[in-house]
Design a protein that fits this description.
Helix content: 25-40%
Number of helices: 6
Strand content: 25-35%
Bound molecules: zinc ion
Length: 169
C-alpha cells in the first residue's frame, strides 16, 4: 500500500467499533486548502487515527497530527515554521443518533457526524486549518535590509561630536 491516503475513505463507525488504527504520512500538496496558506508545500504531516467505543456505546475517533508546515510571516513575508501538534478527540455521531448536548462541552471533545464514508484527507485538512495561527509571525524577523536604523549614526555619537566641538571653542 502506498504511503499516501489520498482518496482514502473510512467507515468511521466501523473503524471505531473494530478499534481501528491508521498511521500515514500525508503530503502537504495533497491538502489544497492548506497548501494555499503555505510558503512551501514540500514535506508531509504525520497522521494517526484511532477508533474506539466506550462502555456507553459511544464511538470516538482520536486524531493526532504532527508536522512543521512553513507559513508566511505576516510581518516580513518570509517563511516561518509552525510546529503542529494536534491531538483531537472527536465523538462520532451516527446518522439519526441524537446529537450530544452539554455534557460534551466539558469534555474538550468535538462531535462530528460520522457519515458512512468520510474522506480522511478532508478530516485531516479541517483539523489542521483550525489549528493554524491567524497571523503567523517570526518571533524576530530577519529582514534582508538588516537593522538599518540600529546600525545608523547613534544619537549618542552625535552628542559626543557636539561636545568635542564645544571643547574646541
Ligand atoms: Zn518575519
Amino acid at each position: 500500500m502506498a504511503d499516501s491516503i489520498a482518496g482514502a475513505v473510512i467507515d468511521y463507525l466501523e473503524f471505531a467499533r473494530s478499534g481501528g488504527m491508521l498511521e500515514r504520512n500525508v503530503r502537504l500538496d495533497e491538502l489544497p486548502r492548506l497548501a494555499d496558506l503555505l510558503a512551501s508545500t514540500e514535506g508531509f504531516l504525520s497522521v494517526r487515527l484511532e477508533g474506539s467505543r466506550d462502555d456507553k456505546g459511544k464511538s470516538w475517533l482520536q486524531v493526532d497530527i504532527a508536522g512543521e508546515p512553513v507559513l508566511h510571516c505576516q510581518r516580513c513575508l518570509g517563511g516561518v515554521e509552525f510546529p503542529l501538534a494536534i491531538s483531537s478527540r472527536l465523538q462520532l455521531i451516527a446518522p439519526g443518533e441524537e446529537w450530544p448536548d452539554d455534557d460534551l462541552a466539558d469534555d474538550s471533545a468535538d462531535a462530528i457526524e460520522a457519515e458512512k464514508a468520510l474522506a480522511v484527507l478532508s478530516l485531516v485538512e479541517e483539523e489542521v486549518l483550525l489549528a493554524l495561527p491567524i497571523a503567523p509571525r517570526h518571533e524576530q524577523c530577519n529582514l534582508p535590509s538588516g537593522n538599518a536604523t540600529e546600525n545608523g549614526p547613534s544619537p549618542f555619537a552625535a552628542l559626543a561630536a557636539l561636545k568635542k566641538q564645544r571643547n574646541k571653542e
